[in-house]
Amino acid sequence: MSSHQTILELDDASVMRDGRYILDGLTLAIHCGEHTAIIGANGSGKSTLMKLLTLQHYPLAHVDGTPSVRVFGRERWDVFALRRQLGIVSSDMHLALLDAHAVNHLSALDIVLSGFFASLGYFEQAQIDDSMRERAYAALNNVGALALAQKSLDCMSTGEARRVLIARALVHEPQALILDEPTTGLDLVARFGFMQIVRNLARQGRTVILVTHHFDEVIPEIQRVILLRHGRIAADGAKAEVLQSASVSAAFEHAITLHESHGYYHAQLGG
């Protein structure tokens, strides 16, 4: 795929909920091969922005009828077809899988296979062939979770389950990997292990779009950072230019000092 192809284009895109703007006039483009972090305080609009990409939210219509959102260059998508182009990992998806597991008793292999159908679990009549199973096992192996293949979801640690979610996201070889606050609920060791997997995937050429409020999750492979504040872009550009104490303090409305060490950034409250 060309690195010039655009994953997401927003043209003055706004989302309103309960009479207030969650996103307010965003204009930006994210391209294939452009590893990007979207950072902001809680309520800044980070997850809403990603839900525009995955068509879980829709923007306000422009008066002249022009589109405010294009995904992979297209204004209109079949939602399930689009989700096969994107690999999505989030704590919300983990919770939804736990609900699905209560009905279908899902193993890791079941969860990964469900990625072919953009579903949470799959029906017995789903057509699963040997090629799909081979790819599912390969995806589990790629994230170091092959030993979990037959393990039940309710017997996994949170860290193990997130590895399985990455394998599910990768099984259909998506064009981009969307990580929406994916380490929520993970302890320090599990969070580090998870982000190491993300680093490996970025090095393999998978476009990574990371939504987070943890500066130390901005892995060295991330090239671009978008800071959000109250639904608007506070800063957008090369990582080293955006991750400055002044710009971050303005976005979070609190004095924050950033330190960079070996490609990672660490935040300290206060000047």
UniProtKB/TrEMBL annotation:
Question: Which domain of life does the protein's organism represent?
Answer: Bacteria
Q: Enumerate the GO terms in the molecular function aspect.
A: ATP binding; ATP hydrolysis activity; ATPase-coupled transmembrane transporter activity
Sorted alphabetically, the Gene Ontology cellular component annotations on this record are: ATP-binding cassette (ABC) transporter complex
Asked whether the keyword Nucleotide-binding is assigned, the reply is yes
Name the Pfam families for this protein. Answer: ABC_tran (PF00005)
Q: Which InterPro entries match?
A: AAA+_ATPase, ABC_transporter-like_ATP-bd, ECF_ABC_transporter_ATP-bd, P-loop_NTPase
Ranges for domain ABC transporter come to 8-255
Listed A to Z, the keywords are: ATP-binding, Nucleotide-binding, Transport
Please identify the protein, giving its name as recorded: ATP-binding cassette domain-containing protein
Q: Which organism is it from?
A: Pseudolysobacter antarcticus
